[in-house]
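Quick one: structure for this chain?
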Amino acid sequence: MSTSQEQQKLDAESTVKRNPHPDFKAVEDSRPDWPHVDLGYFKTRDPRWQFGQGASDGGESLRKNHVEIDPYEEGRPAVSNYKLLISGIVPRPIGFISTRSKDGMSTNLSPFSYTQVVNHEPPIFTVGFSGGFSNAKDSLKNLTESGECVINIISEHFLEAANATSINAPYGVSEWALSGLTPAPCSTVKASRVKESIFAVEGKLMDTKEFESRAIPGKKTGVLAIIEGTRFWVREDAINEERNVIDPAILRPMSRLGGITYGRTTEAVEIPRPDWNKEVDAGHVADLAKPKVEGQ
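Got it. Here's what it folds into:
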């Protein structure tokens, strides 16, 4: 089996089994309709929490045991680590990546939940791609050859359309057409941004890092792309007057959980960052200010 065939097998739903429901449509039809929920702000679980108090669960988490897992233990397939990580590292932001080939003849639009912002000056983003360069998917191929992309953020109002672009369509089929989403022009890159996206970032490729399997030496398993943001696009009703804060109640971002599950952001809490000098003056940390010991 070729490397490309191996990657296609890993990507196949029949192998990964992200969908736990034999008849998903029947399960979905049994669920309540989508509710419109305004973003609400609530108190924290324990608004009277004090320094040194620990978790706010009455010690319940300390009474539970943990299971140790070696990701390379004999007989453990790589897909088990994949399913574990995407269900444990949650919620994850979704980079809805738009790319165009270097010759401009081909485009791609696809969601990637291995996406994160890692710096603000300059604006730096990372995106993880499954598989190596030798069997790169269209998004990675276009990104490395053209050096450009757009990172669009997925909001509630086009979740179904964005998810549709993850279909395993044959090469050359347009995800834009399949999704019904609208391409909009950019200023510093040739790829299109998604007009329906409330927040989008034009980006230029800075660097890439290819990863190799620990279990199967020589097998390339992933690529990390480091991207510099070169232009921001924010829908005018979502940005404040100073153009430095996006309203989460309008952005309404979707995130990825495990399997085929997405998450909404409908509830929030606010907690100010504590100031050491103020807490010392208030006598809140004096008895707790001790040197670090082994294990801390």
